[in-house]
Design goal:
Elements lengths: L16 H40 L3 H47 L1 H14 L4 H25 L9 H25 L2 H26 L4 H30 L1
Helix pairs in contact: 1-2, 1-5, 1-6, 1-7, 2-3, 2-4, 2-5, 3-4, 5-6, 6-7
Length: 247
Amino acid sequence: MSRNVSPETTLPEAPHAEEHSAEGLASKLNWLRAGVLGANDGIVSVAAVVVGVAGATQEVGPIVVAGAAAVVGGAISMALGEYVSVSSQRDAQRALVAKEREELATMPEEELEELTQLYEAKGLSRATAETVAQELTAKDALRAHLETELHIDEDDIPSPWAAAIASAVSFLVGAALPFLMAILLPPSVRIPATFIAVLVALALTGAVGAYLGGAKGTRAAIRTIIGGALALAVTWGIGAWLGTSVA
C-alpha cells in the first residue's frame, strides 16, 4: 500500500521540459557531429583517389572518372552503412518499447514497484519515490518507464532514411572540394594546391567535430591533418610509382 505524503513534501521534478530539452540538444549535436565526420570522410577518401590518379597522369579524363566513381561510390556506401546501423538501433528500441508495454499490461504492480525503486536509487525517500512513481504512472506509465529505466524517448526513435540521406549529403559536401580542385586546376599546381586545401578543410572539420563533442579542437585538428597528409602522401606516391612503372 502506498504511503501518504504531506502537502509540505517537495517532490522532485520528473523528466520534464528541461530534461527533454537537454536530450534534444544532445541528439542534435550527435547528428551535427555525424555530419562533420561524414564530410571528413568525403574529403579524405576522394582526395586520396584524385591525388593518387594525378600522381600517375596529368590528363584530366582519368582524374574525372576516378574521382566521380569515388564520390558516387563513397556517398552510396556511407548512406547504406548509416541506414543499416540506424535500422538496427531503431529495431532494438522498438523491441524494448514493446517489451515494456507488455510488462505494464501483464504485471502493473511489479512495474510500479520497479519504478519506485529506481527513484529510490536516485536518492529519494521511499515515500517520495512512491508518490512520484504513482503520479508518473497515472499520467503515462510507458513513458515514465522508458525514460527512467531505459532512457528512451518513444517519440525520438531515429529514422534510417533521414540518417542515410544526411550521411550521403555530408559526404558529398566534403568530397566536392578535392574533386573540383583536382579537375579544375592546371597540372602545375593541381597536386600541391589540392594538398593544401584538403589539409585546411580537414583541420576545420576536426576542430568543429571536437568542439561539438566537447573536446579540444587543436588536438583533433592536428590528428586529422596528420592522418590526411599521410593518406595523400601514400596515395600520391603509389600513383606516381604505378604511373612510372606502367609507362
